[in-house]
Design goal:
Length: 373
């Protein structure tokens, strides 16, 4: 985090007295979470700027909190990156009030993303080859992607190029989906199972220059797992987030945000069973997420899933916030066959499979059928 303060009150270097930090020196202070630096990029009698840089050391943060969490089967996948530092950023963004255009799981459907942005009133900028690289909205809206930009679809690099441009320019935010995490691990040389549409993304990235792929790695590594926006009234996480986790940082919070409330069980399609956290949600913050494809985006207790299965031939869906208006474009094709038919919305979900029923009885509360991971 970087904070700068500038004064033009002559003599401007009096700022140094005010901060008790000499303008000619670089000051550093060790903190429990990292190191704080204060320096002066400019210090003249007319104009003086002090800069505070907080360099968070994620290893120091995680070393304090790392412990074996019972039941956290995904722990080894989520404890390897600076989630705690990210959480500081998640909370720091709470002052962003929108308006937002929140966009569901794109999964490489670049043409549908372009169509959706156009329908929402965005103007897409292109490079010399005609590829979309940036977009702006005349009303200054901010796009928020709920993650799973990549895999299965026809043009994951094209989606990344556009979203990376928007994020870099500050017209979009993006949380990480589970597919971003898996792609990042693959790009970092880790052993991952090339499944669920990752092979398509890797093939597509192989046609891109190494510099672009390196940029993708940096982008994915910088994605945090949830945002708290609009003064705490809006929470965005790929798989949703229950109230007690909002603005919090831990491996368990991160696992929930990326993968949902998994039980460790799988259903008859080999897909993970998840607790229907949204049906029990009673929080005041609106929670917007994706991850579980449903035929239509529906409100469940002040939460909404925007994944309407574009890559499976459904639609790409956005939520205008604070208007709470749903905007959708149909997919031009079914790009990928779903592992099982698209399930009903959580509210209507009554057809529990055997595994889920068993767990429901054991756990003493209802369980939803799962869907694509
Ligand atoms: Mn997902």
């Amino acid at each position: 985090m970087l904070l700068t303060v500038t004064t033009t009150h002559v003599p401007a270097t009096d700022l140094g007295y005010l901060l008790v930090k000499h303008p000619d020196r670089v000051h550093s202070l060790a903190l429990p979470t990292g190191t704080a630096y204060v320096c002066y990029p400019e210090a003249t009698a007319q104009r003086c700027t002090a800069a505070l840089l907080l360099d968070v050391d994620p290893r120091r943060l995680t070393a304090k909190t790392r412990r074996v969490v019972a039941g956290l089967t995904l722990g080894r996948y989520v404890n390897d990156r600076p989630y705690a530092a990210s959480s500081l950023l998640a909370a720091a963004l709470a002052e962003l009030t929108g308006p937002f255009d929140l966009i569901g799981d794109v999964h490489g459907c670049r043409a549908e993303l372009e169509a959706l942005l156009a329908k929402l009133g965005w103007t897409v900028d292109r490079d010399d080859s005609g590829r979309p690289v940036h977009a702006t909205h005349p009303a200054g809206r901010t796009a928020v992607f709920v993650g799973d930009l990549v895999d299965r679809g026809p043009d994951s690099p094209g989606v990344l190029r556009l979203v990376m441009g928007m994020v870099a320019a500050g017209t979009a935010l993006c949380v990480s989906g589970n597919h971003e995490q898996k792609l990042l691990r693959k790009l970092r040389g880790r052993e991952v199972k090339v499944s669920h549409g990752l092979a398509e993304t890797l093939d597509q990235l192989a046609a891109e220059p190494p510099g672009f792929v390196a940029g993708v790695g940096t982008f994915l590594d910088g994605l945090i797992s949830h945002y708290v926006l609009d003064g705490g009234r809006l929470v965005v996480a790929h798989a949703g987030l229950k109230e007690q986790y909002h603005g919090r940082a831990s491996g368990r919070v991160r696992a929930f945000a990326l993968y949902g409330d998994t039980t460790g069980e799988t259903d008859e399609y080999g897909l993970p069973v998840r607790y229907p956290w949204a049906r029990e949600y009673r929080g005041s913050a609106t929670v917007v997420y994706g991850h579980t494809p449903t035929p239509t985006a529906e409100w469940v207790n002040n939460t909404i899933c925007l994944d309407t299965g574009a890559v499976f031939g459904g639609a790409l869906t956005a939520l205008r916030y604070p208007e709470r208006e749903i905007v959708s474009v149909p997919a031009a094709a079914q790009y990928y066959a779903p592992a099982r038919p698209l399930g009903p919305a959580a509210r209507e979900d009554s057809a529990l499979n055997l595994n889920a029923e068993k767990i429901s009885i054991l756990a003493g509360h209802p369980v939803s059928r799962t869907s694509m991971v």
